[in-house]
Amino acid sequence: MKEIFSGDSPPAPAALAAKVRTLAPSMTRSMQLVAEAVAGDPAGCAALTVTGLAERTGTSEATVVRTARLLGYPGYRDLRLALAGLAAHQESGRAPAVTADIAVDDPIADVVAKLAYDEQQTLADTAAGLDTVQLGAAVAAASTARRIDVYGVGASSLVGQDLAQKLLRIGLIAHAHTDPHLAVTNAVQLRSGDVAIAITHSGSTGDVIEPLRVAFDHGATTIAITGRPDGPVTQYADHVLTTSTARESELRPAAMSSRTSQLLVVDCLFIGVAQRTYETAAPALAASYEALAHRHNPRTR
Amino acid sequence: MKEIFSGDSPPAPAALAAKVRTLAPSMTRSMQLVAEAVAGDPAGCAALTVTGLAERTGTSEATVVRTARLLGYPGYRDLRLALAGLAAHQESGRAPAVTADIAVDDPIADVVAKLAYDEQQTLADTAAGLDTVQLGAAVAAASTARRIDVYGVGASSLVGQDLAQKLLRIGLIAHAHTDPHLAVTNAVQLRSGDVAIAITHSGSTGDVIEPLRVAFDHGATTIAITGRPDGPVTQYADHVLTTSTARESELRPAAMSSRTSQLLVVDCLFIGVAQRTYETAAPALAASYEALAHRHNPRTR
DNA sequence: TCACATGTGAAAGATATTTTCAACCCCGGG
DNA sequence: CCCGGGGTTGAAAATATCTTTCACATGTGA
Fold this sequence. Notes:
By secondary structure, chain A is α/β, with parallel strands linked by helices. The first copy, chain A, has helices at 3-8, 16-23, 29-40, 42-46, 50-57, 61-70, 76-93, 108-129, 132-143, 155-169, 180-187, 206-217, 254-276, 278-293; strands at residues 148-152, 174-177, 195-200, 221-226, 239-242.
């Protein structure tokens, strides 16, 4: 099951830190040690051989190779090459490193700056970690779907509603379900040619997995948008779109950055679909824009 | 003679092509072949092993190693590492022209890059344009409010729901209204010490202005989150938080970037309030996190 | 044409990487 | 509390990769 992920993931260009964070939960203790070392000091690690890195992290060569594999490389050699590239990158980029946690006594101006920076980072990570092949497949499926059902609860429900709202605006038949029971009830109606989309950061939200499973069993094309590409939800997903996991602090719940990440993915999906259905999407967008204008005060200024 | 070059040259950063040119005259025929290949296609060569490169250049492994030495590296392995770094550098150099609008025929990868870039831009603009004094005042009002009502319709309603959801999670009494009639009905209940927040990108959405006016008239502290600080909605707002307006294209409706901007503002507001009510917010956050954990599949890994 | 100097690659030798496999550790059940 | 059992781990074997050696080829000037 898991081979699918390590298999389809491309060599991964620069978003290594993000990848480490995404995959960390599915790693064993020693693997995390290696991943941390690698993410923390790419340049230093690039200079080390397998044996060297194993020693430095207090683990074994085997573990190092295993970690490299999990991160999506064929072996350590390739990870090392990527590391060298990353190091060169950082060298030129000179990271601003404004990455302090938000503290209780931060002045409001700092909060704004840190939050904006964090969200920008999340966006960059998400974009870098998004598998465009999977995205393309998802877009293709959604573009030609008879109907599209979206499942999400909690914070993700808002993202789901956002997606459904936008798809509706370009003339597709989309619906966001927030009630798990109704979601399952409706999922039964789906069949081949329909699309079901589950949104869950943790990848293990039962209320969302269940309707996706039903949709899957009924032959619909299923898509999972999750931060845990190895989570249970992917069992029933034809296509997996990975969102990034940013570090959270006490004041900044994970939901916040995962939402940013999810919205970007959803937007990409939407734009992709709009491109593919341009003939119908463009007039529909224009029409809905027109309709909205009349709801506003005529004297806009 | 040659030791001079290999001796004084540091690992050689990126100016490899130049080095090749300088040293070419002192190279033998086969070595030049290797050097040319390396300078011409760093990325491609980085993927090759000694044997591979030897074959590709029609020479032998020994020659490849000799060339690496001449270029100043201890051995081929190190040359290869440098090559990988160089390749990454070149890669980053070619910007995908992300500043352009999203076109109908953009490949999916470009869509992702452009969208991520645009949203990052929106965040930066919003953070720069946000009046921290107004924000501070809004935070102060919300922190001590008896109850908080949030108004938003259309795309903004999701932002309002997001805010209310989060405020609820830290123990405040907040409610997001999407039905204009109910919103007005409830606004009548507000009085001094309560807070009403209106979210509207255009600043002239009647359905949102009306409840804010009622709340204002009843003595509540009113806050407007809008992209038009001169719009009608600000008439009834004690504090105005400005969101940024990014350019929109045919495929990318304004709602998309305004949403990003609104969410950042709302997040800042939330964090500010959480800081001010830390004593009660922290345990409440922990408790809600705890409660959620049990909804998930126990076997997270 | 021959002695000599230099360039070259095959193969041996040294390192590094990957795989295998048995010991280990933790966890849940009896 | 003890005892499997499944997953994790590292030592060492197996393999691949890199480096060195060395003998041969090639060309050059007397």
